[in-house]
Design a protein that fits this description.
A: about 250 residues; mainly alpha; de novo design (two linked rop proteins); 9 helices; about 65% helix; elongated; disordered N terminus; B: about 260 residues; about 75% helix; about 5% strand
């Protein structure tokens, strides 16, 4: 048997999860501690597992889907009937949509920096060191940025829950069955069709859903943390703000 | 030459674009290029190998596949993304031309004056490179033209996809009677539902990009109109104040002479 040379590593860099990571991880500097944990969980337990393991489990999902018939086209039609969209693509879309609200925060930070630079120039401070300092300083999550951050967290939670619900609608039960029965045209009668690697697929589905649940909890915790921090700040400056006085009164009445 | 290289080029040109332009670039790369590379390409990966016709006649499947899929969706989308990204390079070319001519002028003037030190000249050249040009004058026209071209390409490709595939839905079964198929045979397309989902997704993302481009064009036009109105107002107030000044002078002269 002739020896085949090992596959050459792809010399051209592709637009892939690594470039996506580079884009998203820039937001990390302006996140809270919980936000950074969420980003790490996302990249390590979801994207990495998807790319390194799950894609090879689902790799032969169509070629390994076999129906007990020789009728051409029956395999294709039955596969399409039972798998309208592959798990892998659903997860890829979920990960992309869930990560993008973080870019709202990045855009807000960039806008704030632009405004600060303008103010510095107007006040006459055109020292390049000062302008560089604006670029590298960490923005405090207060004011309008607080609202942008909280809204991005709410969007993340909504997207995660929506995708989990979609999953449940398309594949009820989260379990991958070994055998499905199909009678779509051109199958001559009700034929048995066998799914490839059902147990391994069930394991990975449960794993990905569990991590998705963990991410939802982290996002909810981050929302509570931010709200608590904002309330705490208002209480500190209770003398000036009426909101702080109101909260203090309510707390004291219990 | 690949997507990350194109991304690097566009990000460089993006420095001189409006905020809507920056949002457009993010939508383009995250919801279109990323989804195309990471998800859509694997859905269409087996489109020909899994295109099955209900016949053993050699060549029938090839001929029928070619009849129903003259250009694959993936290739159409790649072409669309490349065409839609290139008008931004017009802007990049204009900016580099402006920088080049300003650099020449700077070097000539410093050569004539002979006063600037080497370090001062270098600093000026650096600020020239790093500055952000305001979108006005010839740059405004270049930018607006690039937006118009983007809209035309987006619309053109979406229309082409709609016409070639008779809508955005992928059927499960097509019937083919091209030679050498012996009669009207049923041919089955692989993963039609998943393909329909991604076609609709990409069409939606393309429409969002078109809306962003139209909003950006309206914003530029509105900005130019307000700028010309402000300019007119200033000229009017200047003329008014100069008239008042001359009137005051004549009054003073009259008072002095009286």
């Amino acid at each position: 048997m002739p020896l085949t040379p090992p596959a050459e590593p792809d010399p051209e860099p592709k637009m892939n999860w690594a470039s996506f990571y580079a884009v998203i991880s820039g937001v990390n500097r302006h996140s809270t501690g919980i936000g950074r944990i969420w980003l790490s969980v996302l990249f390590i337990f979801r994207i990495l597992v998807l790319v390194v393991a799950a894609e090879s489990v689902w790799g032969d999902e169509k070629s390994g889907f076999i129906c007990n018939t020789q009728q051409p086209g029956c395999n294709s039609v039955c596969y399409d009937h039972f798998f309208p969209i592959s798990h892998i693509r659903l997860w890829a879309l979920q990960l992309i949509l869930v990560s993008t609200p973080a870019l709202l925060v990045a855009m807000h930070v960039a806008h704030r920096r632009h405004v600060d630079k303008r103010l510095y120039k107007l006040s006459g401070r055109t020292n390049p060191k000062d302008l560089e300092q604006i670029k590298t300083q960490k923005m405090k999550i207060t004011g309008a940025l607080w609202w942008t951050y909280v809204i991005s967290l709410l969007f993340r939670i909504v997207f995660e829950v929506t995708f989990m619900y979609l999953f449940y609608m398309i594949y009820p039960g989260y379990k991958m069955i070994r055998l499905v029965k199909c009678d779509s045209y051109p199958c001559p009668n009700t034929v048995d069709c066998f799914v490839s690697r059902p147990t391994e697929k069930t394991v990975f589905t449960v794993f990905m859903l569990a991590v998705s649940g963990v991410c939802i909890l982290l996002n909810i915790a981050e929302v509570f943390f931010l709200v608590g921090k904002a309330c705490g700040k208002h209480l500190h400056t209770a003398g000036d703000s009426t909101m702080g006085v109101w909260i203090q009164q309510k707390l004291c009445s219990y | 030459m690949s997507w990350p290289v194109l991304y690097a080029q566009l990000v460089g040109a993006n420095r001189h674009s409006t905020s809507l332009g920056k949002v457009w670039l993010s939508v383009l790369f995250i919801f279109r290029v990323m989804v195309l590379v990471v998800a859509a390409e694997s859905v269409w990966g087996d489109e020909q190998s899994d295109f099955t016709c209900n016949t053993l006649q050699p060549g029938c499947e090839n001929v029928c596949y070619d009849q129903f899929f003259p250009v694959s969706h993936i290739r159409l989308w790649c072409l669309q993304l490349v065409f839609v990204s290139t008008p931004t390079l017009l802007v990049a070319m204009y900016v580099s031309y402006r920088n080049h001519s300003d650099k020449k002028r700077l070097l000539q003037s410093s050569g004539r004056a002979g006063l600037l030190s080497n370090k001062g000249q270098e600093e000026d050249l650096e600020t020239l490179k790093k500055r952000r040009l305001p979108v006005a004058g010839a740059l405004w026209w270049t930018y607006a033209c690039s937006l118009v071209f983007r809209l035309l390409f987006e619309g053109g490709f979406m229309y082409a996809l709609y016409v070639v595939y008779d809508g955005f839905q992928m059927p499960r079964l097509v019937q083919c009677d091209q030679w050498p198929c012996p009669n009207l045979v049923d041919c089955f397309i692989s993963r039609p539902t998943e393909k329909t989902i991604f076609t609709v997704f990409m069409a939606t993302a393309s429409s969002i990009c078109m809306v962003l481009n139209m909003a950006e064009l309206s914003y530029l036009v509105a900005k130019a109109v307000t700028r010309s109105l402000c300019g007119q107002k200033e000229r009017k107030t200047c003329r008014k104040s100069s008239r008042v000044k001359t009137q005051n002078k004549t009054n003073q002269k009259l008072l002095v002479s009286a």
